[in-house]
Specification:
By secondary structure, this protein is an all-beta fold. It has no helices and nine strands. The chain is globular, with a radius of gyration of 14 Å.
Length: 94
């Protein structure tokens, strides 16, 4: 029998997050009953920001978004106040 992971309250993730690996900035916010995650891409030439927004989903393995046709798992370390996105690495609160 597979044990269901203990899920944290998504409300603690609301805010701006900076990548420690220079990946796109992340903004997490609530829209009604759903939580959304936006990746903010900066165009180096025009200095324009372009967001890509995804609904945060959950299943027995935890929280995730569908990103570039893949599952991007969302983790949170409460002690370090660190967000982890599986293929993008760690993020610190901004």
């Amino acid at each position: 029998m597979k044990e269901e992971r203990e899920l944290f309250d998504l409300g603690i993730l609301v805010g701006n997050w900076e990548s420690v690996n220079l990946h796109p900035t992340v903004i997490i916010y609530r829209n009604g009953d759903t939580y959304l995650l936006s990746l903010i891409y900066m165009n180096e030439h025009t200095k324009q920001a372009s967001p890509a927004t995804y609904e945060i989903q959950k299943d027995g393995n935890g929280y995730f978004i569908s990103y570039n046709l893949k599952r991007l798992n969302i983790g949170y370390d409460a002690q370090l106040d660190m967000l982890n996105l599986s293929s993008l690495g760690d993020y610190m609160r901004n």
